[in-house]
Amino acid sequence: MELQNSDDILRMIRSSEDMMEVLHIVRSLCLPDWWVGAGFVRNRVWDALHGYEEPTPWNDIDVIYYDTANAAREANRALEETLAARRGYYPWSVSNQARMHLLASDAPYTSRRDAVGKWPETCTAIAVTLDSDGDLQLFAPHGVDDLLGLKVVPAPHFYTKRGAYEKRMIEKNWRSLWPGLEIYHFD
Fold this sequence. Notes:
With 187 residues, this protein is of the alpha/beta class. It has one domain (6-149): Beta Polymerase, domain 2 (2-Layer Sandwich), CATH 3.30.460. It has 8 helices and 7 strands. It has helices at 6-14, 17-27, 39-49, 73-86, 101-104, 112-117, 145-148, 162-172; strands at residues 35-37, 61-65, 92-96, 127-130, 136-139, 151-152, 182-183. The radius of gyration is 16 Å and the shape is globular.
């Protein structure tokens, strides 16, 4: 499948049985402003661009939502348990973006959009949701050009977190799975 723009990414997701299953399961939770993002989308795009016939297994499936009324860590764990009870073979990771600023040492995020925009790389700051009509929506605050161009570039917010970005690049070691990646490093 050729991927050149957001519409192509949405077609790829729609044609993936397991991605659609994940989205249907998460939608059934009725979470406020929910999305599934980061590697869930990014890795599948990279697989397609590398011509892989079999998808790379997900390390985790990042389910995000935004709910200031219930930002307790325990709520995320309970949701992960609910998801595991439904499909335990998926590596669920649930995070309410209304509390994630605490882990990132940032000011409180004002919305899901604000939070995703502060994810580490432009290619990682991408998420998809399935609305009640069955339509897919893609959110990529930094666009999809870097993702489709196999470029790993820090998101603007991470220009002030250079050490964290560089450490993440070492830990992720993405080029071992996707050798066509061009990874930006600070000088």
